[in-house]
Structures are given as structure tokens and as C-alpha cells.
């Protein structure tokens, strides 16, 4: 469905972020020219979440906890885990690990390591601190996800506006978190799990409000969006795609 604008998943995600649903659907209809409910699958070009290298510092058997104690700049990461049909996935194992503010991993103990499970609505929340930088890498979090009886997805999450995003060869803009305000990040994962599209958005509390930039939206020159807490002006008319987030496309977006 890529190229046709809003897809079912986009609508569901938008509904999660910005109910009421009727408004979201009418906006989607206006953009797509067709009822999104007829879209049978969840494919808007960024599914599923891409894998990334595990790196050298993963340790099995992390403690079960969603709060990773540490001194540094507070960070919460929240969002949802979906299947290929946009269905929220409950009981997904999510194992996070990261560097401390000095860029060091705790390889002796389990500092800044912990696993949790998504709730019945497919939601997760990690409370931690902002990871530090270490040589050769931009700022990132590591995570492994596993839906029940499914393969493990190992990947990483990135922060918008990081200078090293441009030089880290592992960096993937599809894995940029939305950071509407410092210390608050959101990201929705899509796992390679087939299923049936939900009949309605899951009744869950929405994640913190993100910016206004949306993949699939056609932006005219001069349009302004908010992404990662920053305002950007469109330099060239285009239809936004995953990976073309404003911080990564200076030819398309100018920070104002
Ligand atoms: Fe790392």
C-alpha cells in the first residue's frame, strides 16, 4: 500500500496517539481517498522493524524489571509492539541493555540491563537513563524482542538530532525514536508475526504525544512540522516516508 498515503496501520497508530477515531478516519479518507478499513494488511513500507547487530555486550538472564536504576539524565521509552496485521502483541519479551553515561557497559553485573513483557494492549514502558557515547558508535539502546513461540528480533534504537547518526555505519533512520521532549521517547515495533487486523484500536492509554511529522503525508514547500521536539520547514514538496525523518533529510527539511 506504499504510495497510497495512509494505511490501516498508520490509522491505528494515529488513533492510538490522537483519538478520537472519527476525526482520524476522516483525515485518512481525505488523504487516501478510500476507506482505510478496507486495507487488508499492515504494510506501509517500514514493516517489520529491521534487525541490527547484537554487539559484544549482551548478557542473558537479565533481571525482570522495567526500571533500570542509574544516575544520569532520566529517560522513558514507551510504545507498542504490533504484528504484521497491526495487531497489538501481548506478552512479548523485551530485553533491554545499554551503556552508562560514560559509555561503559556493566559486563560484570546487570546494571542498565532488564527485561519486561508487553501488556495486554501490546504496550511497554522502559524507565532508564540516557546512554553515553563510546568510540565508533552514535547514541543507542539495545533490545531483543520475542513474541511467544516466535524468533528473536535483535535491534537497536536511536535518538534524533545526534551528530554521530551521520557517521555511524550501523545507524538506521528507521530505528529513530520519536522524542517529543527531552527525556521522553516513543517507538512502536512491528514483529514478523502474522495475524488478524483488530476491529478497533486497542483501548489503551496512549504513549506520550509525538511530533506532527507523519510518514505517508504529502508536504508542500513551506509546510512546518514538529519532530523530536524541533520545528522544521519543508524545503521541497514530497510525500514523507519512513527513513525520511526531518533530522535525516536536510535537503527536504530545514530546522527553524
Ligand atoms: Fe552498544
UniProtKB/TrEMBL annotation:
Name of this chain's protein: Carbohydrate-binding protein
Domain Chitin-binding type-3: 210-256
Region described as Disordered: spans on this chain: 36-65, 194-217
Organism classification: Bacteria, Bacillati, Actinomycetota, Actinomycetes, Streptosporangiales
Leader sequence residues: 1-30
InterPro entries referenced in this protein's UniProt entry, alphabetically: CBM5/12, CBM_sf_5/12, Intradiol_dOase_C, Intradiol_dOase_core, Intradiol_RC_Dioxygenase
Positions in coiled-coil regions: none
Family indicated by similarity: Belongs to the intradiol ring-cleavage dioxygenase family.
Keywords: Dioxygenase, Hydrolase, Oxidoreductase, Signal
Biased composition (Pro residues): 195-209
Entry annotated with the keyword Hydrolase: yes
Gene3D superfamilies membership: Aromatic compound dioxygenase, Carbohydrate-binding module superfamily 5/12
Amino acid at each position: 500500500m506504499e504510495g497510497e498515503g495512509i494505511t490501516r496501520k498508520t490509522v491505528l497508530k494515529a488513533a492510538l496517539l490522537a483519538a478520537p477515531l472519527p476525526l482520524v478516519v476522516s483525515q485518512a479518507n481525505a488523504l487516501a481517498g478510500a476507506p482505510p478499513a478496507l486495507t487488508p494488511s499492515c504494510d506501509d513500507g517500514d514493516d517489520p522493524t529491521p534487525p541490527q547487530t547484537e554487539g559484544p555486550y549482551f548478557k542473558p538472564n537479565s533481571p525482570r524489571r522495567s526500571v533500570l536504576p542509574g544516575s544520569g539524565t532520566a529517560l522513558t521509552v514507551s510504545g507498542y509492539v504490533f504484528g504484521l496485521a497491526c495487531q497489538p502483541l501481548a506478552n512479548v519479551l523485551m530485553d533491554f541493555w545499554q551503556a552508562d553515561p560514560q559509555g561503559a557497559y556493566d559486563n560484570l553485573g546487570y546494571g542498565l540491563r532488564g527485561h519486561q513483557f508487553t501488556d495486554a494492549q501490546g504496550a511497554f514502558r522502559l524507565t532508564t537513563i540516557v546512554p553515553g557515547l563510546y568510540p565508533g558508535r552514535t547514541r543507542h539502546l539495545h533490545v531483543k524482542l520475542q513474541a511467544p513461540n516466535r524468533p528473536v528480533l535483535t535491534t537497536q534504537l536511536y535518538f534524533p538530532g545526534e551528530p554521530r547518526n551521520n557517521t555511524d555505519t550501523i545507524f538506521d533512520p528507521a530505528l529513530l525514536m520519536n522524542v517529543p521532549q527531552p527525556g521522553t521517547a516513543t517507538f512502536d515495533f512491528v514483529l514478523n508475526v502474522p495475524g488478524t487486523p483488530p476491529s478497533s484500536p486497542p483501548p489503551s492509554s496512549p504513549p506520550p504525544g509525538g511530533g506532527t511529522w507523519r510518514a505517508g503525508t504529502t508536504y508542500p514547500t513551506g509546510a512546518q512540522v514538529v519532530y523530536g521536539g524541533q520545528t522544521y520547514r519543508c524545503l521541497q514538496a514530497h510525500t514523507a516516508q519512513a527513513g525520511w525523518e526531518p533530522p535525516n533529510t536536510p535537503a527536504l527539511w530545514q530546522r527553524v
